[in-house]
Amino acid sequence: MSDLKSVEVPPFFVCPISLEIMKDPVTLHTGITYDRDSIEKWLYTKKNNTCPVTKQVLLDVELTPNHTVRRLIQSWCTLNPTCGVERVPTPRAPISKTQILKLLKDLKTPSLQMKSLKRLKTLVLESETNKKSMEAAGAVEYLTYVLNNHNHNNNSSMTASSVGDESELAEFELVTPSDEAVGILYHMHISQATLQGLLAKNNEFVETLTRVLQHAVNYETRTYAVMLLKSMFDAAQPMQVASSLKHEFFVELVNVLNDQISHKATKATLKLLINVCLSGRNRIRAAEASAVPTLIDILLDSSDKRLLEMVLLALDQLCQCAEGRSELLKHGAGLAVVSKKIFRVSPVASDRALRIVYSVAKYSGNDAVVAEMLQIGVVGKLCLVLQVDCGSKMKEKAIEILKMHARVWSNSPCIPHNLISSYPS
């Protein structure tokens, strides 16, 4: 509107949200008309359930095209071209359920599959309404079929005695049906109810996405797959956090962290790992999949505050099992880098690092470990905790650790002279 020259825009042409001339006016049951793009973002992206103008709770979010207002806007634009007004094009009508179902059924016909996937991808990126319509039409089930079918074919081809010559390799598609299907599922922004339903089906969809991670060569596809997994477990009820996840699931999460395919994928994987490791059995599986040394390497290499906080939270969970503590102690820099992060990142990180030290000292504190904690400066750092302003809970935990092994540590010359006075009696 700022580009218009000396022309008064009728107020009912303006969207109450964007304050711009509406291109595709739609009306809520409250009687207020908005531009489709703006109200869809308000309802679906920002997760609001009220009418922005009336503040009424929306029990029905059907968006009815306001053809009268749209025609009036187009006529007005046509009459004012000299004032910098461009004609608003007639918006494309949202795709019908019948059209969506036809595209979904085509996914099961090999010759039509890629064409249908590309059309569905265009639709899902076009509008929030299309996303909701696709989900309502059962797109998740059809796209899962594509993933399972394509992964099965991949597995079958990999059992052949040889891959073949370069001419055979050239026949592989750069973008596979699996790549397209995962991208569509990610961009659909699947509802929480549907995600919970997927997780309730004996981890079938989790296993499907695990196979995608195993076979995908496209980094974007792997990112989408791990983001979908994160969304599923974010939506899970407490009782739904599966304790029966397979070893391969954790191996693929570790591979994503090791490959550093993207910052977004790394953070999503860490959040996912933290979520599923609420279960003790999953902690053991994660430790057996070499999650601990991978997390330690991130601690050594990264300076991202939020990333380090998540890594320490994940390590804290893993060190609550013997397998996790064993892996931490096997790593040459494990205990040292954890203690170094106390007071170096944030209060949250300091608290988590101290909890890790506590788990090691209490449950794995044999003679060799106790001696190592002294030599690498962990004991000195615990004494420092008692001298600074860091909250009573951290001090209490530090005192408890120091008292556990006071017989070995209290009179050691390894503790810096200025910290010896802090050692609890």
From TrEMBL:
InterPro entries, A to Z: ARM-like, ARM-type_fold, ARM_PUB, PUB22/23/24-like, RING-Ubox_PUB, Ubox_domain, Znf_RING/FYVE/PHD
Record has Electron transport as a keyword: no
GO biological process: defense response; protein ubiquitination
Sorted UniProt keywords: Transferase, Ubl conjugation pathway
SUPFAM superfamilies recorded: ARM repeat, RING/U-box
Pfam family for this entry, one: U-box
EC number: 2.3.2.27
Domain U-box as annotated: residue spans: 8-83
Pathway where it operates: Protein modification; protein ubiquitination
Catalysed reactions, semicolon-separated: S-ubiquitinyl-[E2 ubiquitin-conjugating enzyme]-L-cysteine + [acceptor protein]-L-lysine = [E2 ubiquitin-conjugating enzyme]-L-cysteine + N(6)-ubiquitinyl-[acceptor protein]-L-lysine
Gene Ontology MF terms: ubiquitin protein ligase activity
Protein task: Functions as an E3 ubiquitin ligase.
Protein name: U-box domain-containing protein
